Automatic annotation (TrEMBL), chains A, B:
Family according to the record: Belongs to the peptidase M28 family. M28B subfamily.
Organism of origin: Pelagihabitans pacificus
Superkingdom as given in the UniProt entry: Bacteria
Residues of the Transferrin receptor-like dimerisation domain: 619-720
InterPro entries per the UniProt record, alphabetical: PA_dom_sf (IPR046450), PA_domain (IPR003137), Peptidase_M28 (IPR007484), Peptidase_M28B (IPR039373), TFR-like_dimer_dom (IPR007365), TFR-like_dimer_dom_sf (IPR036757)
UniProt keyword terms in alphabetical order: Signal
Domain called PA: residue spans: 146-214
Name of protein: M28 family peptidase
Domain Peptidase M28 residue range list: 326-519
SUPFAM superfamilies linked: PA domain, Transferrin receptor-like dimerisation domain, Zn-dependent exopeptidases
Annotated signal peptide: 1-19
Name of one Pfam family that matches: PA
Amino acid sequence: MKRTFVVLFLLLFVSTATAQEAITGFTPENAKKQLTLEKAFEAKLNTDNLDQWMRKMAAEPHWVGTDYGRENAEWIQKQFKSWGYDAKIETYHILFPYPKVRLLELTAPTTYKAKLTAVPVEGDEFTGQGDALLPSYNAFSTDGDVEAELVFVNYGIPKDYEELDKLGIDVKGKIVIAKYQGSWRGIKPKLAAEKGAIGCIIYSDPQDDGYVRGDVYPKGAFKNKTGVQRGSVMDMPTYPGDVLTPGYGATKDAKRLDREQAPTITKIPVLPISYEDALPLLEALEGPVAPNKWKGGLPITYHVGPGPAKVHLKLEFDWQLTPAHNVIATLQGSEYPDQWVMRGNHHDAWVHGANDPISGMVALMEEARAIGELARKGNKPKRTLVYCAWDAEEPGLIGSTEWVEDHKEELQRKVVAYINTDGNGRGFLGAGGSHSLQQMVGEVASAVIDPQKGVSIKERRSAVNLVNGGKEEFELYALGSGSDYTPFIQHAGIASLNLGFGGENAGGEYHTIYDTYPHYTRFKDPGFQYGVTLANTAGRITLRLANADVLPFAFKPWQATVSGYLDDIMKSCTEMRKAIEKHNNMVDKNVFELAADPKKPFVRPEKKEAVPFLDFTPLQNQLAALETSIQTLSEADISKLSMDKRVKMNQKLMLAEQALTSDAGLPRRSWYKHQIYAPGFYTGYGVKTLPGVREAIEQKNWNEAQEQIGVLAATLKRFHAHIDEMNNML
Amino acid sequence: MKRTFVVLFLLLFVSTATAQEAITGFTPENAKKQLTLEKAFEAKLNTDNLDQWMRKMAAEPHWVGTDYGRENAEWIQKQFKSWGYDAKIETYHILFPYPKVRLLELTAPTTYKAKLTAVPVEGDEFTGQGDALLPSYNAFSTDGDVEAELVFVNYGIPKDYEELDKLGIDVKGKIVIAKYQGSWRGIKPKLAAEKGAIGCIIYSDPQDDGYVRGDVYPKGAFKNKTGVQRGSVMDMPTYPGDVLTPGYGATKDAKRLDREQAPTITKIPVLPISYEDALPLLEALEGPVAPNKWKGGLPITYHVGPGPAKVHLKLEFDWQLTPAHNVIATLQGSEYPDQWVMRGNHHDAWVHGANDPISGMVALMEEARAIGELARKGNKPKRTLVYCAWDAEEPGLIGSTEWVEDHKEELQRKVVAYINTDGNGRGFLGAGGSHSLQQMVGEVASAVIDPQKGVSIKERRSAVNLVNGGKEEFELYALGSGSDYTPFIQHAGIASLNLGFGGENAGGEYHTIYDTYPHYTRFKDPGFQYGVTLANTAGRITLRLANADVLPFAFKPWQATVSGYLDDIMKSCTEMRKAIEKHNNMVDKNVFELAADPKKPFVRPEKKEAVPFLDFTPLQNQLAALETSIQTLSEADISKLSMDKRVKMNQKLMLAEQALTSDAGLPRRSWYKHQIYAPGFYTGYGVKTLPGVREAIEQKNWNEAQEQIGVLAATLKRFHAHIDEMNNML
């Protein structure tokens, strides 16, 4: 037993051994068994199931609250039961707006009434379901009835407003029109409202999402002129989930905020439109020609405004408490029933959602089916598996968030890790998550074969990175937001992963009526080869976490990555200082005014506050100290470890991620507890690493930046103590 | 007298003195006189003259051979005579093609006949002159009648064909359609023919030259959907000028090549079209979607082809010997009549040419008028001034080239420098030329005031550079080709300058029927303020060269610049070596194939020949030795120099540029004698510095590269000897 552990810990904490059979967290003997099990698992995966299940679940629209959505949940529950899982539906009662009135019209200098309807296309019967299709809108836009001059604000992100400042253009009292992309959509109305706009229109420009990219549906995969991207604009960077029950479960009898007080509903009405509807509006703008980078793919000269185009936007929603049905399916662990490995994917869609989310959902189900079958034949996982099919992800990660909030205390005690998937397609592995899991995920990626090229998915990912000028090494990306891992990692501090394939599945169907079975099987993953590859990848990861002798967390990659984040921040701080010095010098020399074209709008730039020298040493010292401890842990002679200690060690490993959270959470958004990863306050999905410090610097809030350095150092100190507690067990 | 010379040479060879009154090449006393003269000159400049003369000369189309063109030449001659110049017309007889048949039609899968006609616009009567307007065509396209499948080749430059190779697409036997821009237009049919294409269509894409840039004419300055850019496609990088008389003047009785043998007429027919005419052709293409960087501003998905679009292109020209009338106006120098300072601008246009070339022509005339007036009042220039109005620049720099070839021997003895101008507009100084003149031009730029901002044009240029992330210091750009300086500097080795203002004069009128007086005065230089500023700048440069006690050549800036060119080349060689090593390594690892999408065209890249280590030491040693001699010349105590030696020194200074030429010229294009500057063989206008060496490396012709290093080193040695002869006079 003792000798076993020497080898075991060496495998765990030192870098991956060379022999193919060596896998992190397993004794050599158990590694062999595990790899045999994984091969048996892989052999059971069948593309036909994915195909059939997608046909079934994506046959009709199934957003939260629909009968078809509930039927899907019940059907999923039934499937899980048939595979030997203990499956239940947990329902929350969430606020969900359905669009009653949607009016957008150009009222000057000419008139145009926006159609707001995508057309059915030949060869895709699903697009012809008429009134059954959810009208295009942005969920959690406030009600409103506004009329004002229009201003084109590019993507409507912070640097676009800097450009508007240079042009001397103010959006106060105006309605803005912004292109989709450049940030998560919810940032656009949030920022527009902060700048004083009274309404916001979002459209898909053909350059980013239309004919410029490729042939449009149904000839090709891309967005035709009538397609509209639906989507939530809830202020998720403040908190996701039900807008009325922040931080706790939206159970039937939960105390709720008044809707008028809900801070995550937008301040101004916002509506998404097609590029066909955007064209007359943009064409009617005058004022300065848009900066070159703002110009899109419509056959017009893009102007910024304001006006003479004037628009009238009227939106009314039916705000109802709506049931959201999460399916929770459990397969009890044979050795550690109170250690849960969790897997999840949402089941609700905006319309049919063949790609988003059903392509991921059917992969998860096939994975669960195969594992259930293996379990029935005597290969029960050692730890408990919990498979989840979330409802109401689309309007704001609501199903998963309410569930995590509701069960937070138990989850923080029991969950080893949460593995998320969502839409999936042909291409390369994209894997994000807690960097303590990077080594294990890399090992699994070495074991899974790419269905098109016959090499490992890791090798293919590496080839793509190299061709695009990136690194050869396998790395996890850092998680921001955008799917159901958010409540797990950001709020509960549970180590999480997000997995998916893509890169050869481009299209314009996202959140439109065109995300259908015919579109998916023509353009996204014909034959479901990558659906099965996702099941294979996520399933192996799940099984490794479930069966590992010692949980396969490795902190050296974590240390290297987090040190890199700090280096980044310090470098960007220095660059910001230099750039501001240069700028101020140029202002002093009147260079901007001398260079400016007197026939174009010009606002003389102001001098900017100099960037102070921040004291990063608390972070540098903590990371240096941590490095030593992590090195110790990875090199230690742990031959003296008893079985009892091993159980305790696993317990400590599970909880390590939670040591990276702080109860107070991030400034102005206490729901976000994690101190290493968060979605950006002004990017929405895009991650900000070391967010407290990084965002304070980006916002030039120097006092807060110094304060957050202290907060983060204290978190790292707690994490260090946690690592040292493990070292003390050795 | 002796003391004078100490100061004099210090001014000449050391950097510019700080006192405003100190100017390179003048004794303090003469500097004062010169600055007084320049002020008097400036005071005489009158925008009204420019306005009137443009109205006159741009009233009707006046391409070479037209009656209106001849009348303009005669009128210019008359003006010069009235200002006291000895003015004559020197006529050459050049081959010039006039379009008889222009047919372009889509023949499959649908049909479309190209209109090939720009429409008249309201508010611009000149655009309504109907048949008097020259039909749109590319001069020196060969006759042809071809029909074939179409291939879209982006800009049709070398790297675009590399991209086509990756897609496995060959243009052999096809007709290519290329966007204007990315290179000089003549490169497109040249390269297409080298690749086996049988026809070439060039169009203006709205992204580069149309509504994407700004509002179109007549609402704004940019190209409307019917505008077509005319222009020469003669193979000027081989030799410019008359295609039948390479290297010698196209006099009446000159021996001429057969047209069929003329190497600079294109090998395949080529026709320019509007984006209105291009749209149905591009829309009919299938095959791979164009790479992202190739996509333009038309509202379509750009495909590469080949086919199914098939086009029929038929072109026939009337090939006539046509008289080209150069106006040569001389003002005899009072002290050094055999030292000529030359000024030139062309007078022929494609259509009305209000901007190109009349805006530059009227500035030159106003400058000459003012100088003539000063001369009549006793301020005769010390050296002879020769003002030239060139004909037939548009079809291939023909008027100037024939004249230079015809008078080469005399010019090489007598010309101090040639100063060129061409189209001009609102904005910032752009000055290119021989770097031995950089110091003097910089001093003049300090003395001329920007009409919009009230600071010197040098200061404004510097502000623009800084705002665009460039250098604060004033620098000349290196001359490639594109206007009449080419025969002077590239062929005869005469120090040259090219001057113009721009940057706030964007538009789409270039070589179209929209380059008219109304367009010019609305969008290019309303009020002719920059026309007069150009006259002021070029006039002061001319007067300084004419009156300098010692010619204001300074070689330290030359040395620094040329050393920079060598550093560039060595660096790019190293980068090329590294890139090829990386590429070959990736080919070995099969990375490209692993990364490729199996559903898209893919050609496995080949390994490339490794870049050898070239021996640059001959150039490094020559430049190092030169640096010492140039330092000596600039620091020397030349107090012992006699008046006689001063005359000899001036003679040596005049001829220094010629020491940078070699009789053999560049490989495969012996007309180009200059060893420091040449237009690129595959860029056309774009300069290649140290061209023999640089282009051999770019073409991966390693033997030739090493050989050209030797040739260039020998040239630098001759130049060094020339500098040392001056040192020996000290």
